[in-house]
Amino acid sequence: MKWFQVALLTGILVSWGPSPARTADDDKPQSQDKPEATDGPKEAEQRGGTTGKGDRDKPESLEDVGAESASHAEVDPLDVEFGTLTALKMHTDGNLLACDAKSKQIKVICPEGNLVATIQLEFAPEAIDVAADGAIYCGGEGRLAKLKPSGEVIQTGKVPEKAESSEEQPKRAKSRKRRISGIALCGETLMVAVGAGGGRGSRSQLFRLDLQFQKAKLITEDLRACCQRCDLVAKDGVFYLAENTAHRIVRYDVEGNVLGKWGQQSRTELQGFGSCCNPMNLCFGPKGMLYTAESGMARVKRYTPEGKFLALVGYVGTDRFRQASGLASSCSNIGIAVAADGNRVFVIDIKKNMIRVLEKKTPPARCKPEKEEPEKEEPEKEEPEKEKPEKEKPEKEKPEKEKPEKEKPEKEKPEKEKMVDVGAESASHAELDPLKVEFKRLSAMQLNHDGNLLACDVEAKQIKVIGPEGNQIDTIELAFGPEAIDVAADGTIYCGGHGQLAKLDPAGKVLHSVKAPEKAEAPVSETSRRRAKSSDVTLRLRVSGIAVTEKDVFVAFGSGWSRVSTSKLFRFDRELENPQLLAEGIRGCCQRCDLVTDGESVYLAENSVHRIVRYDRDGKVLGKWGKKSRDELEGFGACCNPMNLGFDAGGVLYTAESGLARLKRYSTDGKFLGLVGYLGTDRFRSAGPHAAACSNMAFTVSPDGKRLYVMDYKNNLIRVLQEKD
Questions:
Q1: What are the pLDDT digits (tens) for 581-594?
Q2: Max alpha carbon distance in the chain (Å)?
Q3: Is 397 exposed, middle or buried (0-12, 13-18, 19+ CB in 10 A)?
Q4: What pLDDT sits at residue 530?
Q5: CA dist., res. 370 & res. 378, Å (int)
Q6: Which helix (H) or strand (E) is 374 found in, with range?
Q7: Which long-range contacts (CB under 8 A, 24 or more apart) does 29-35 make?
Q8: Do 507 and 449 touch, CB atoms closer than 8 A?
Q9: What pTM was estimated for this model as a whole?
Q10: How far apart are CA 288 and CA 235, in angstroms?
Q11: Strands 143-147, 699-701: parallel, antiparallel or unpaired by DSSP?
C-alpha cells in the first residue's frame, strides 16, 4: 500500500469516527482526536459518545431506547412505488404529498393509502410545504415553484446565486448540485435552506424570500448540516431549522433573527439526539407539537416548540447503527409527515424507497376506563385496608371483575362515537322510526308540491312515491338509474343518472331526455379505475346534483372514485338544451357534489375542502364559506363535508354531514343557526375504509322545517327527524 493510500484511508477513518459532544451554543467544530485520547469509558458515555471498538458490537436492540413507551407502532408501509422518494407533506385536504425526484413528480396519496393523482414538474422536487390556503411550494435542483392546490404551476423562481459551494467546502463536494433541503412559509415570508457541500463538514445557507420568490436575503451561510441536509418547518410566526451536525434545533423569527437554540447529543437518553447527525427531519403535528426524526436510529419523537421532550412516537424498521459508518442511510433523509389527528405518522425509508407508517397504538383508547377508576373513589376503597384478609379475597376475585373491565372498551365504542355527537343536547329535532319502504339502492330524495316524497332507487331504475303517512303509493319507471332529483315550482320533475338527464311532468310521465354533454367528464385517475374494478363498480359519469330555477336547470357531474375526484357544473335551459359549462375542478369526494338553489343563487357542497360555494347563473362565484372542525358545531367534520344540502320554505339552508350523521342549519351567508339532530348511523372521526365515511346522505326538508327525511346509505333506508315538542 502506497503512503498516500494509507494517509487517505487514515483521513477517512478519522473523519467518520466518533465525535465529541457539543453544547447547544457551540458553533465551532471540535477536534476529534483529543477526546479519544483523553476520555475514558465513563467520560465517553457521559458525552453520549462511544467507549471504543467494543461499543460497535453491542446489540442493535440497544438503540431502541425506551421502545416500550412508544405511543405508535409500525404497520404495513404504503403500497405506492417511487423512483427516488425525497420529501413528504400533509395537504390541508388530508392527502399526503410525496415528492419523487427521479420521476420529477409529486404523488398525491389519499388517507386510505392509495395514489389518487400525480403532479408533474420540470425539476426533481427535494423539499415541499403547503400554505394555509392549500397552495403548494416546492423546490429542487436550485429551482422553486408555487402550485395551486390542484397542482397547476402558477409561479417559478430560482435559488439566489449566493447559494454556491464556498472555497471552504471539500473539493469532492464541488461537483454536487445545490440541494434545497428545506422550505417553510409563514404569512408572507418564505424561508429556504440550501446545501452546497458534501459530508459531515457541509455548511448550508438559509434565505428569506417573499412568496413570489423575490427580495432574497441571506440569513446565514454557516449552518452545520450533514450532506446538504437541513430540514425546515414553520409555526405561528417562528421558523424551526434542524442543524443536525450540531444536534440541535434553531428558532428564527420572520426577519431571520435567532430566537433560541435547543438540543443535545445523547445515545442513551430519549431527550437527546443520537447517531451521527440528528435531528434529521422535522414536522409539526396536532396541538402545535414538534415531531423530530433521527436517521440511523429510525426514531420519531415529540417535543414542545421550546424543546421540552414530550414522548417517544416510535421506531420504524430500518437498519439501526450507533455511529456514522459507510452505510448510506447513516445520515440519510428520513422525512416525516403527521396526520391532522396525530394518529398516523408517515416516514421516508430512503434505503428501501418506501413510505413507512407509524400508527397510534390501541391501548391509549383504554385510558378512559382507567380514568374512570378514580371516579369510583379508590381512596374510599382503601379505607378497609385494616382488614387485610377481607381485602385480599376481593383481590383474588378482581381478575374476574377485571375481565368485563377489559372488555369495556369494546362495549364502550358507541360511547366513543357519542363523543362525535358534539352538542347533541341542543338538537331541535329527534329521530323517529324509519320509513317502512324497501329499496334496492336508495340514491336521492325530494318532496313534491303534493307533500309526497320522491325517493330515487338507482338499481331499480325507479322513483318511488311515498305519501305523508310513510307508505309507498306509486312508482315511476325510468330508462336509467336516477342519482339526483329536484322539483320545479310548477311541479315538473327533473332527474339524472348514469350520464343522462330527464324532464317529467308532475304525474311522472317522461317529457324529454338527453345525454350529458361530452365535456361533462373530468379526468379519472388510475386509482379510481382500480378501486372501481375491485368493487365491481362501473365508472359511469355521475349526476351528483340538480337544482331548478324558473329559467334554468343546474347540474353537477362527477367523475372518478376517490377523495380527489373533481366535478363540473353546467347550466341548461328548462328543456335540458343549450348546456353551458360554468365551473370545473370542483372538489367533490367520490363524484359527490350536491347542489341546491334558493331561486336566485346556486349553492354547491364542495365537500373535499369543507365548504359551500355560492354561484350566480353565469357561474360567477359570489362567495365561499365553511371550515373543517371536529370539535365545533359551526364547522364540518369527518372526511368530506358537508355532503348534502337542502332548503326549507323560509330560505334556511340545511346541511348533512356523512360519517357524523349530523344535520345543521345555516343562513345563506354561512351564519350557524343551530343543530337539527343526529341519526342512528355509524360514527367515525376520520376517513377510513368504511363505505359510509364519505357516503351520500341525501335529505329533504318539509316546507315548515318540522320534519326531515334523511337517507341512510349503509342500511338503505329513510330515517326521519321530527321537531321536538
A1: 999 888 777 667 89
A2: 101
A3: exposed
A4: 52
A5: 12
A6: helix 367-375
A7: 29/201, 29/224
A8: no
A9: 0.49
A10: 8
A11: unpaired
